[in-house]
């Protein structure tokens, strides 16, 4: 088996990652996840795409302290009055530009969203895809699974390593 190169970039769909692990009933320990990306996939830069929501400044600061590079998108409010960041185009553009400028050896894409099918397929066909990490196997788009081919990995298999243990208040 060949050794993983040292200059890999992760492109993380922040909302999809967070909601994906929560839908399985656990919380991701973001500090452990950043270490996991660095140690397992040699990720030097971990770009975390997220909608900018006032009041989340403490969380943003914490993510930056853990080593994530946050890329914000202004939010709009949906019919349910919840903020939506719609970061998909930003993640695709940023990763495609980095790929064209040959800034990384391989890309790690973190999402379950089928909207990233074309990006994953492009990276795969150009030998620039290291892995697609889906937060939740059950909610992962079948289209994304098809594009990721044998490069798909799921966080449910790493739950015990990466979860944040919730302290009981009882």
Strand-and-helix sequence, N→C? Answer: EHEHEHEEEHEHEHEHE
Helical stretch tally: 7
Q: Would you state the CATH class?
A: Alpha Beta
Strand coverage percent: 25-35%
Q: How many structural domains?
A: 1
Average pLDDT level: 84
Shape: globular
Level-2 CATH architecture: 3-Layer(aba) Sandwich
Name of the CATH superfamily = 5'-nuclease
Strand order of the largest sheet: 4-3-1-7-8-9
Secondary-structure-based class equals alpha/beta
End-to-end Cα distance: 48 Å
- Kindly identify the CATH topology: Rossmann fold
Q: Provide the gyration radius in Å.
A: 16 Å
Explain this structure.
- With about 170 residues, the chain is of the alpha/beta class.
- The chain has a single domain, classed as 5'-nuclease (Rossmann fold), CATH 3.40.50.
- Helices cover about 35% and strands about 25% of the residues.
- The protein has 7 helices and 10 strands.
- The chain has helices spanning about 15-20, 30-40, 55-65, 90-100, 115-125, 140-150, 160; strands spanning about 10-15, 25-30, 45-50, 70-75, 75, 85, 105-110, 130-135, 150-155, 165.
- It has a 6-stranded parallel beta sheet, with helices on both faces. A two-stranded antiparallel ribbon has the order 2-10.
- α5 (about 115-125) packs parallel to α6.
- The longest helix is centred in the middle third of the chain and has 13 residues, at about 90-100.
- The radius of gyration is 16 Å and the shape is globular.
- The protein starts with 7 loop residues before the first strand and ends in a 6-residue tail after the last strand.
């Amino acid at each position: 088996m060949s050794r993983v190169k040292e200059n890999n970039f992760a492109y993380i769909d922040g909302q999809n990652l967070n909601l994906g692990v929560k839908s399985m009933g656990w919380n991701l320990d973001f500090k452990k996840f950043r270490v996991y990306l660095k140690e397992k996939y040699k990720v030097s830069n971990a770009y975390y795409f997220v909608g900018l929501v006032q009041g989340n400044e403490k969380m943003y600061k914490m993510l930056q302290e853990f080593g994530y590079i946050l890329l914000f998108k202004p939010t709009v409010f949906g019919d349910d009055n919840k903020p939506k960041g719609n970061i998909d185009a930003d993640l695709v553009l940023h990763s495609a530009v980095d790929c064209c400028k040959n800034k990384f050896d391989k890309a790690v894409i973190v999402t379950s969203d089928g909207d990233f099918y074309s990006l994953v397929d492009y990276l795969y066909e150009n030998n620039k895809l290291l892995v697609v990490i889906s937060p939740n196997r059950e909610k992962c788009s079948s289209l994304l699974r098809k594009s990721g081919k044998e490069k798909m990995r799921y966080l449910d298999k790493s739950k015990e390593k990466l979860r944040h243990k919730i302290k009981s208040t009882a």
